[in-house]
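Progress report, Aim 2. The chain analyzed during this reporting quarter is listed below.
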Amino acid sequence: MINSDQNQAEKTRILIVDDHSLVRESLKRLVQNEPDWEVCGEAESREQALTIVAASQPHLIILDLSLKDSHGTELIKDLHVQCPSAFILVLSMHDELIYAERVIRAGAHGYITKQESPAKILAAMRCVLRGEIYWTETAAARVASKLVRRPRASANQTIDSLTDREMQVLERIGMGQGTRQIAATLHIDVSTVETYRSRIKEKLDLKNGVELLQFAIRWKGD
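Predicted structure tokens for the chain:
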């Protein structure tokens, strides 16, 4: 949270991390319309984001989950270590009900989808800067229900049963990436990707690679 005793001349520094230039430009205009905010940097990759964070120590980081060289959940953990005072708001196309809880566990402070209006995105940014967690009532209710409901026999066949890394591999499969490309993107061994593929098939009750690919494409397109 920004200390009210800070020098009034100091603006809230915001870093935008997204690999689409149009998204960065839209967010930049949104930030520049706020007199007490400023964009302290833009990044389209993990390395750029970490470099800018080290140099500018932003108050708020707006982060997309899908980057060309990294997945957002892993970057959140890195950013949290490098700049623990910074708040992190995830702005993504992905289903909030699937990812919101995961990014909060990773160290983010809020989750909002890109389909929301600029006014709601601004509200989410202000909420996070106050030191509060931002997610929709639907996502909050879902998390609460998970805490009180009894485990079901079919729980191991749901998306929720996948680990963060397995989710990242599934997402890349849905994007049409092969095993070697996934390994290069996530900076892991090919054999490790194969292990994750096997675990995903087992957890989702998929018989073979074709069913896995079909499921990943449908899920990615939802």
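The first strand starts at residue 12 and ends at 17. The CA atoms of residues 107 and 189 lie 26 Å apart. These observations will guide the mutagenesis work planned for the next reporting period.
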